[in-house]
């Protein structure tokens, strides 16, 4: 089981693209030591599109990849794959990539009251049809075929995906999300432990007797990240 350290940073759903560069600014602040952390958890969908088999997605992300590897000299970095960024392990040597099939990532606190944390992007425990579709999209043979097709059509497929993402509303509120959050929590079988997800962009925090759940907001919207603090109880401080 991995250890969650006090002062760890959590970022979800930055959806970085040519027109949205907040995550780059954040990484540069880390490099310049303007902000400090022992651990950085990237909770998925950090890019609008980053897939190893899709070569058209590489060039934009490469400076980020180089900087993330460099930052690993200062801190531990965990990258939980999302539904826009996956099959990432070949990009990194030092960043710890957590693919969908290995989520949730389970951690415990490094000091104070021992607590467990279940971390995932949020696209797990879905209905079987949707789960099958998401798994199929990660198939390396299918992706290689699509990559060739994308090359032959002058990147028309990847350009369409990115164009749709730029128009997508990342800042919506889901009605009755609290009800969904309770259902999500049950799926993890966390039994009083913390569940932390991205994906839904809802910024919902629940601390109840039997439910400890935090759905992170989209970094693309608020440019905010969260720092975990241990005292008499676990706290997530917005920065």
UniProtKB/TrEMBL annotation:
Q: Which molecular-function annotations from GO does this UniProt entry contain?
A: metal ion binding; UDP-2,3-diacylglucosamine hydrolase activity
Listed A to Z, the keywords are: Cell inner membrane, Cell membrane, Manganese, Membrane, Metal-binding
Question: Which N-terminal stretch is annotated as signal sequence?
Answer: none
Q: Does the keyword Metal-binding apply?
A: yes
Record has Cell inner membrane as a keyword: yes
> Which InterPro entries does the entry link to?
Calcineurin-like_PHP, LpxH-like, Metallo-depent_PP-like
Q: Locate the Calcineurin-like phosphoesterase domain: which residues?
A: 10-133
A GO BP entry is:
lipid A biosynthetic process
Q: Which Pfam families match?
A: Metallophos (PF00149)
Query: Under which name does UniProt file this protein?
Result: UDP-2,3-diacylglucosamine diphosphatase
